[in-house]
Amino acid sequence: MRDLKSARIPESNTKGLRLRVQLLFGLFLTLLGTAFGRAVYLQVFQQEKLRGLAQDQYVRQIDIPARRGDIFDRRGTPLAQSVEVDSIWVDPSMLPNVQQAARQLARAVHLDGNDVAARLSRAKRFAWVKRQAKPQEVEAVKALGLPGLGFTKEPKRFYPQRELGAHIVGMVGTDGHGLEGLELAFEDELSGQNSRTSGFRDAKGRKLMVQGAMDPLERQGAAVTLTLDRHLQYVAEKALAKAVEDAKAVAGMAVVLDPRTGELLALANNPRFNPNTPEDGVKNAIRNRAALDAFEPGSTMKAFVVAAALEQKAITPDTLFFCENGAFRIGRHTINDTHPHGWLNAQGILQVSSNICAAKVAEALGREKMVAAYHAFGFAERTGLALTGESRGVIPFPKSDISLATQSFGQGMTSTAVQLAAAYGALANDGVLMRPYLVSKVVDPDGVVLLENQPTELRRVVSQRVARQVVGMLESVVVKGGTAPKAAMDDYRVAGKTGTAQKADPVARGYSDKRIASFAGMVPAEAPRAVILVVVDEPKTDVYGGNVAAPAFKEIATAAMAHLAVPPSRTVAPAEVAAAAAPVVPPPAPKALAKAVPVRAGLEDAVTETPEPGTVRVPDVQGQAGREAVVKLLAAALEPQLQGSGRVVSQTPPAGALVEKGARVTLELATRQ
């Protein structure tokens, strides 16, 4: 008989199983709820953070440097440009032997091996080998076949004109930021805006692709156009270098300025440097002396003292001053002239550059009026060339008689070369001072003009009558008997003034035996188109501006007149010019001087016939070298055509023929046998 009790499941076991199932279900439900809550927390509250972490694994933000804007001369010739070059980097973790690889890389890129090894040892995944490497260096590195090498394009500043205008343009550093000159002054405009874009990378950090290329115009800097003329800048630098070399001087400056507009056509410095390889330059060669340095200008200031005295009617052109025969005592000091002179009028003072009589003119003018005149001519105020560190010069108030005397001939005060050229520009521009400027305009890639300079009249310094009187007096400086006959030109009338200043010794608190020789001139004198200043610092072969600086002025002026196509001046007979100058007057006969013919009238009496408007007479160039003949014909507004080489043996049309301006003149050249 079957036992029914044994067939039934115990009630206690069934209850235990049910409890275990419930507990397991609750556990799974709790875990599921926790996971769901965690997922909600991560997906909702930590979404942005996790997205950033994820993108950081495979997405890299890539900085794209902007292409730096170009710098041009007035005719569009590039003075500074940016080009794309390779920079070399390496992943040191992938190199089998870091020290050996460092030596190989250093030899390939011409760097110090220890320096390269130190950089690779410090880095883990990235180290620069060389930024902005040369093409041959890039090829040499690629030939090594080392693992972990990378190459990236970076903009590099390139100066196609090399040394030409380098002091004005300046230079940039390896990081692409301006360090000197206009590169520094217009850093914000030239640098443009850097852009960023997203790129993907693999597990080893290698860039796979870039999402969308940026428009190059959107990351390009503005273009800067200067007033400089490349040709005149070259001529000025060449002539200045020769003057400095011939005088065995330490440095030099030259300025070419258009007096009608204030535009700086050339701004030369010596010694020079190449901004492409600035490390090869000499010490202090990078400094823009012409715009930044202040120096004592010497006797070039006498023209402004005479002009101010004439304007204030303190003197007249016929007023006589006794020059004390070369020595004049003021208190404990004695003023000396280079040569002894007796009685001189204003023209004679400028022609022979008498310190003593200049001091007497200043005394007649008065302290306040002399200082006010210097300020009116633009001294002791910055010209605003937009160059960092521009000096303003100093005009101390002359409290003593000796200070008044020394400042009348440019000692005990300072000026920059640009200030001095601009002041002579005021005399050349009929007494109106124009603001000198170097930057013509700044234009962004879209064509929007960010900055544009126009000719600006600052003020009238002296009347037109006085300005022309003084310019006429300055013409006597370049004739026989003046201090600068070496500045005279065959085809153009020249007016100018020499300067020879003692250099201050800051240690001894006095003046040393070193000198600054200068010549400031304008050409053509009857209607000046260019003011040219040449300054030679510490000449050793000769210290006088008429011998050291005047020849460089003549060389620059000759090229400038030809380049600017300025017609030759009216012919002046040398004998009549010398007679018209005649500044020295014996003391007993002052009335005779009052009847003397003024220099301007004397020059006008020597004028030859004037051709019909639009025509010009063909100059005689036979026997001259081809280059000299071309310059002479260009100056006469004629078009030269050369046949052969050597010296001119014949010309068509013949010399003296009356032809239209721009007519072609054929020159036959031959080498002498």
UniProtKB/TrEMBL annotation:
Q: Which Gene3D superfamilies match?
A: 3.30.10.20, 3.30.450.330, DD-peptidase/beta-lactamase superfamily, Penicillin-binding protein 2a (Domain 2)
Query: Which positions fall inside the PASTA domain?
Result: 610-671
Q: Which keywords appear in this protein's UniProt record, sorted alphabetically?
A: Carboxypeptidase, Hydrolase, Membrane, Protease
Main subcellular location of this protein, as a coarse class: membrane
A single GO BP annotation from the record?
cell wall organization
Q: What is this protein called?
A: Transpeptidase family protein
Where does the record say this protein resides? Membrane
Q: Could you give one GO CC term from the UniProt record? A: plasma membrane
Q: Name one GO molecular function term.
A: carboxypeptidase activity
Q: Which organism is it from?
A: Corallococcus exercitus
Top-level lineage group:
Bacteria
